[in-house]
Structures are given as structure tokens and as C-alpha cells.
Design brief:
16 helices, mainly alpha, single chain, two-stranded antiparallel ribbon
């Protein structure tokens, strides 16, 4: 502590932020077991036990909300998670440094655009009258006529997936590029002398070397699956692009909690839903870590 006191001082603001915004709010979860009233406050409101937890299982909307949350999250874990790995492998194999740097910069850029701006851009891009996506698909013969992407419930999950991949792939690839950069060049030189092909080098050398990083990221993605993976894009996309036409597929747990708590004033019920979501996420994290430890001998903790 004494030798590295300046490093510890540098992380104090982050520790303070973590405590204030992630640990102190845990005290508020007791609202889930109370009939919360503003005039009585958190500690003055009366205890009702599992009343609001039981109400969740009797809510006719909850089934569809859970299906939407799991559906959006699963396709992101399945399709979005491998994309940064593939991009990092492709960039690491590029023999032209200038082209590699250019592609890296271009791929990183969408991460720094706020989801509000992305939603506005997506609305324009996917417009059936002015959007270039419909024009391109119609000109290629994939569609016979323009498609109302943001007005069709069956298309919403795939729109969400596409935006998530476009926005996060480049930035997340930094982690895997860093892991690849840590591989000893002597291993590559020895493999080249042995006559290994580039594809074999990726399969038998690069991927096994970065496997611990992949495992850790996979465990963290599954633990945060209900939010849409590490990027946590489910709420932003559903809140900003959800509407009455696609509500059957865009209403997820986070937007449902917001509507119940803020719009309808059912604070205790909304807290109970959020609490159960947190418990399920923790169980997913523990299960993913246990499975990783059994299958690959790699674990996060």
C-alpha cells in the first residue's frame, strides 16, 4: 500500500463511484418488501413480505416481457459475442500496418456515438421511404417492396442485434487484440518455420493463446445477459426505438420496470421485478463460471 500509494489514490474516485451508485442503492431493494409511500419514506413504509414478488407471477404481461428479454439477449450472446474475436483475428493477420490502423479507427468510431444519436440514425436508415437500407435491399432483389423494420414486431430483435454489432464490435475487439499482442513472436516464428499455414496458425496457436480472455469475457457476457451482454444495449434500444407497433417484441424487463415504477407509480412492484432480475443475473454468472471451470479449467473467480 505504501509503495503504490499514488496508484491507489488514482483509483479512489472509481471506488467511490462504485460504492455510491452500485452498493448504496442496494439499501433501496427493501422497497420490494414494503408498500412504499412517499410521505412515509423507505424506512417508514409498512412491510408486506412477499406480496409484490407474488404479484410478479400473477402478472399477465410478465410472460411476454421475459420472453422478449431472453430472446433479445440470447441472440446477442450467440451472434454478437464472436464478432469482436473474429475482427481481432482478421486485423491481427493484416500484413499492411496503415490499412490495419485505418480499419481499427473506423471500427472503433461507432462506440463513441451515443445511443440517442444511433436511434435517430437507425430511424432514418430503416425508413421505408427515405432509408438507404430499404433502397439497397429492393435494388438487390432481396425485398419486393420497402419493409417497415421499426413497425414490425418480428424484425425488432434483429434490428437490435444489428445495431449492437455495429456499435460495439470494434471497441470490444481491443481486448482481444491486446491478448493477441501478448503472444510471443517466437511462437509464430517457430510455427512458420514448421510450415504451418495462416489458418492453422489461427486455430492452433492464436485461439488457444487467447482462450483465457475469451472465457472471462464469455462468463461476463452471460452474467450480464439480461441486459444484452457486456454492452448492455437492451434498454437503450428498446426505450428509444420501441413503439406501439413493435411493442409485442420491444417491451423488456428494464422498460417494464421504468413504466411500472415511474409512469404508474408502482415503485414497490418495479423494485421487486428489478430485484428478481438481479438474482437471476447472479445465478447466470455463477452457472457460467462453474461450467467454464468444468469444461475448460478456466474460471473468472
Amino acid at each position: 500500500m505504501r509503495a503504490e500509494k499514488y496508484l491507489h489514490l488514482m483509483i479512489l474516485p472509481i471506488i467511490a463511484w462504485l460504492i455510491i451508485f452500485h452498493y448504496v442503492p442496494i439499501l433501496g431493494t427493501q422497497i420490494a418488501f414494503k408498500d412504499y409511500m412517499f410521505r412515509k419514506g423507505v424506512y417508514g413504509s409498512s412491510w408486506v413480505g412477499l406480496k409484490h414478488i407474488q404479484a410478479i407471477f400473477n402478472d399477465p404481461m410478465m410472460g411476454q416481457v421475459i420472453v422478449n428479454t431472453l430472446g433479445m439477449s440470447l441472440i446477442k450472446v450467440i451472434f454478437s459475442f464472436p464478432m469482436p474475436i473474429l475482427l481481432a483475428l482478421a486485423l491481427s493477420e493484416l500484413p499492411f500496418p496503415k490499412l490495419k490502423r485505418t480499419l481499427q479507427t473506423v471500427s472503433y468510431f461507432p462506440h463513441f456515438i451515443s445511443w440517442t444519436v444511433v436511434a435517430l440514425m437507425a430511424t432514418v436508415w430503416l425508413s421505408p421511404t427515405t432509408g438507404f437500407v430499404n433502397d439497397l435491399l429492393v435494388s438487390l432483389g432481396i425485398l419486393e417492396k420497402p419493409y417497415l423494420f421499426l413497425g414490425r414486431p418480428e424484425a425488432f430483435w434483429w434490428v437490435s442485434l444489428g445495431l449492437d454489432i455495429w456499435k460495439s464490435t470494434g471497441y470490444m475487439s481491443i481486448i482481444y487484440l491486446s491478448a493477441i499482442a501478448g503472444i510471443s513472436p517466437e511462437m509464430y516464428e517457430a510455427a512458420t518455420l514448421d510450415g504451418i499455414t495462416r489458418f492453422q496458425r489461427i486455430i492452433y496457436l492464436t485461439l488457444p493463446s487467447i482462450l483465457p480472455t475469451i472465457v472471462i469475457m464469455a462468463v461476463m457476457n452471460i452474467g450480464n445477459m439480461l441486459n444484452g451482454g457486456l454492452n448492455g444495449s437492451n434498454f437503450q434500444i428498446s426505450y428509444l426505438l420501441g413503439n406501439t407497433l413493435n411493442n409485442a417484441r420491444s417491451e423488456i424487463l428494464d422498460t417494464y420496470v421504468l413504466r411500472m415504477g415511474v409512469s404508474l407509480g408502482r415503485f414497490s412492484y418495479a423494485t421487486a421485478v428489478g430485484l428478481l432480475k438481479g438474482i437471476v443475473s447472479m445465478l447466470l454468472l455463477l452457472a457460467a463460471n462453474f461450467g467454464s471451470k468444468k469444461l475448460t479449467s478456466q474460471s473468472f473467480f
